[in-house]
Structures are given as C-alpha cells and as structure tokens.
C-alpha cells in the first residue's frame, strides 16, 4: 500500500510528462532531445564512479584477439561512446544503437579516441543484430543497456550468435536490489515513472539470472555498488561471459 501511495505521489509530480506521453509527444521528444542530453550528464558521473571497475573489466580484452591478431569489437547501445577510452589500441569497433540521436557526442568521443578503428554505426536493437554476420566478432560490450532492451534473453541470443567461438561478452549493468532492502522498496516506488522518463529503463531486472540461463561456457559475475546521487540504480553487476 505504501508503494502504491508513493507511486501515485510521483505520478502527480511527473504529471506533465504523463500528459505529454498520452498526447504522443513525450516519446519522440525523449528519444531525440531529452534522453541523449540527460544520458550524457549521467554518463559523465557514472564514468567517474565506474572507472576503476571498467579498467579492471576491459583489461582482458586483448586476450580475445582473433588468431590474425585483430580485435573486432561490437558495442550494443553505444550511446555517446563513453567506453571508447577503455578499449585497446588498434581495436576495430562497430557501434550499434537503437537511437541515432547520439551522433554529436559520439563524434566527439570518436575524435578523442583515435587509437581505435571505427568500422561502422548501425541503427539496431540488441534483439535484432541481423546486419552483423554470425561468428564475426571477438568481443561484444554492453553497459547500462540491458535494463531497457525489449527482451534480455533475445539480446543475449544475438550476442552469442555474433560472437566467434571463444569470444567474450562484457557487461556492466544496474540491477534490482535485494528484495528485503530499502533500496528495492524505492526501486518499486520509482519504477513506472522512471521507465517512462528514461526511455524504457527498468529498475528491477535481475540480470544475473538471465546471464546464468544463457549458454556461456564460462561466466564471471561480480555484484558491486555504484552510488549515484538521487538515483535508485546503486546495485550493479560487472563481468564477462565466454562463448
């Protein structure tokens, strides 16, 4: 009852957004203007908080080079390209995102990170990477994306399809808190409004379970805490799975 009451209060506070959504205005505005703008701001803070974890996570990327010595990397939900700084020199990167409105910040980060080779940018959802041939990449990267895909299991199936045997899937994602915690209580309160405002982002996904159910031959998952001020997305998982 307390969750429903507080949800109602939040709906009232965010009533203009709900009204714009009802009128069909919010979604295109969010996709083209609001979400790219706010994600840039959140990414800047999140990158500072997660830098140590990302440095540790991506340190092993060179281990997954193909026999030719190249490292072909596909990033799902590239956004503005905040991960480019962590990729090894000479890496061949294919960028994908369902939202093509990140081009300005993406171009800026490409210019900053000229140690990489940028292959192409694909407008594609994580669940449908048909433009990428099967077994064609050495590594797939996905950070703060699985929270908002339509199907987590469908996305992971596509990840396994495009990876070559022995390739790796790297992830860093926010997840549901422990059900008995106050953090989970507030995630429940914020869930509907947060999902509407932040382009389908779900606060309560237990993504480690989806990863465990996927057919990785090896899976390393670590639960960590990244406190972002005034947000309910503190619990995270980080790690990689090998095909």
TrEMBL record:
Keyword check for Manganese: no
GO terms of molecular function: S-adenosylmethionine-dependent methyltransferase activity
Keyword annotations from UniProtKB, A to Z: Methyltransferase, Transferase
One of the protein's GO biological processes: methylation
Originating organism: Manacus vitellinus (golden-collared manakin)
Stored InterPro entries: Methyltransf_11, SAM-dependent_MTases_sf, Thiol_S-MT
Domain of life assignment: Eukaryota
Record's keyword annotation contains Methyltransferase: yes
Domain Methyltransferase type span(s) in chain numbering: 74-171
Signal peptide: none
Protein name: Methyltransferase-like 7A
């Amino acid at each position: 009852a307390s969750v429903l009451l507080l949800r109602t209060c939040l709906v009232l506070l965010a009533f203009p957004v709900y009204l714009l959504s009802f009128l069909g205005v919010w979604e295109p505005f969010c996709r083209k203007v609001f979400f790219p703008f706010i994600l840039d701001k959140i990414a800047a803070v999140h990158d500072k908080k997660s830098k140590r974890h990302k440095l540790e996570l991506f340190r092993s990327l060179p281990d997954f080079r193909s026999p030719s010595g190249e490292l072909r990397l596909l990033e799902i939900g590239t956004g503005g390209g905040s991960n480019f700084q962590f990729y090894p020199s000479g890496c061949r990167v294919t960028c994908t995102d369902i939202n093509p409105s990140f081009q300005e910040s993406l171009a800026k980060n490409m210019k900053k990170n000229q140690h990489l080779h940028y292959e192409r940018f694909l407008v594609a959802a994580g669940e449908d990477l048909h433009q990428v041939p099967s077994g064609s990449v050495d590594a797939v990267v996905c950070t703060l994306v699985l929270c908002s895909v339509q199907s987590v299991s469908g996305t992971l199936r596509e990840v396994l399809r495009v990876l070559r045997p022995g390739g790796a899937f790297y992830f860093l994602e926010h997840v549901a808190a422990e059900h008995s915690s106050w953090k989970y209580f507030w995630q429940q309160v914020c869930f509907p409004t947060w999902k509407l405002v932040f382009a389908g982002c779900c606060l309560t996904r237990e993504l480690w379970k989806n990863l465990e159910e996927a057919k990785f031959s090896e899976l390393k998952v670590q639960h960590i805490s990244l406190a972002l001020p005034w947000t309910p997305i503190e619990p995270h998982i980080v790690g990689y799975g090998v095909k």
